[in-house]
Amino acid sequence: MKKIIISIIVILAVVLVGVGIYIFNLFNAFEQGVSDSYQSTDRERSELREDDGDESPDSFTILILGIDESESRSESDKFEENDFRTDTMILATFNKDENEVKLVSIPRDTLSYFPEENYFDKITHAHRINGPDSSISAVESLLNVPVDYYARVNMNALVDVVDTLDGVNFDVPFDMDEPDSTDDGRTVLEAGEQELNGEEALAVVRSRKVDTDLGRGNRQLEMVEAILEKAKSTGALTQIDDLISVVAGNSRHNLESETVRSLATYYAFNTVEFNNVQLRGTDYWNPGNGAYFYMADPEHLYAISQTIRESLGMDAPDPNDLINIRLSDYIVPYEYLDDYMLNEYEPEVTPYFLEDGYENQYGDGFDVPEAQEAEGDPDIEGEDGYIPEEGTEEEGAGDGMDQGYDESYDESYDNGEGTNEDYYNDAGEYYDDGTASDESYY
């Protein structure tokens, strides 16, 4: 009997040592993975946090940036990570006190102010100015809420995560035929609820041929929730080493390992409610050149800002601190703002949605009807978009991609005063002032 007991103890000791080694290796892999994918920003913290003495580590925001980057695209276009536009932009607000995560999807064409450039442009273009820093600045100026962290992922991350989780269940809204992650093949899907692999999940979140970019934004929110639910329900901690490898190879972020570990542990073992919404707005066609933009609804902007700031323990926003609200009557794409308009101008009339007795139609900004007033750019694929006449000079013209030009030149901007000699800005990037011919874009 004593020999049997000793044998059992020895076996247990061997097992425990093995488990200990595995945990130690897993911990090292985690630390290495977080370290390898870590990329700091040019700032230590948001300026909107400077007066926030009661900042809580349990309530913070993460800006999720999805870029349409792949190895083949990087090699063929000779693009670095910061050269890509953001096809997905979701601001996640984590509130442990309420066991809640609020997700705001910002359509890529949303007309937003770029502090570094001092003009309004599509928010998708911000990333090509100075990477995540510029995207963060644009979101903060749009919503007047601090962005505490960012996480940027490429298309391979979604494919690999879904495959690591052995697929995800999703109700595909319509038939799809999309290029795969390498752009060498096609992914064909039929409408209906089904189990998707990584390539199929990528096709779902990329497609915008049927319901434009607004519909795609809603699908992306739904896919995020579906992946989180699958990860939680299947006990993804058993696959954590594979997931760490996926994250390390396909993302960049400025989250410390302690924050990531705490976040993952908490949301893996607690029931968390996800509330998501897509920023409401209306279609806007630039009178100068007919280019399409998405004009955010000021009432919805304010409701979202107020709710997020409350979740972060901050004071309610002053409407004049949201530049899209303060300058709502004077927003012109690519037009530089003078010091007075930027820093001093305030409208004489209080916004209608802040008048006494008025009830915001969007409630808290997240409990809103599914119906969308705007249709989004009907020519999102650029087949029949507006193209300036050859040799003409048009005020405010620019933005080649949405007018039918090659997407690789979609870093353009214009102040309406350029000439053909001004096709390169100070950073050496190509842009259009409206005087270029079709040939200038190739």
TrEMBL record:
Q: In the UniProt record, does the keyword Ribonucleoprotein occur?
A: no
Q: Which UniProt keywords apply?
A: Membrane, Transmembrane, Transmembrane helix
Q: Which residues cross the membrane?
A: 5-27
One Pfam family hit: LytR_cpsA_psr
Where does the record place Acidic residues bias? Answer: 370-397, 404-442
The UniProt record lists the keyword Transcription: no
Which InterPro entries does the record cross-reference, listed alphabetically? LytR/CpsA/Psr_CW_biosynth, LytR_CpsA_psr
Which parts of the sequence belong to the Cell envelope-related transcriptional attenuator domain? Answer: 85-232
**Annotated region Disordered: where?**
360-442
| Family statement | Belongs to the LytR/CpsA/Psr (LCP) family.
The protein depicted here goes by the name LCP family protein
Q: Which organism does this sequence originate in?
A: Corticicoccus populi
Q: What is the lineage of its organism?
A: Bacteria, Bacillati, Bacillota, Bacilli, Bacillales
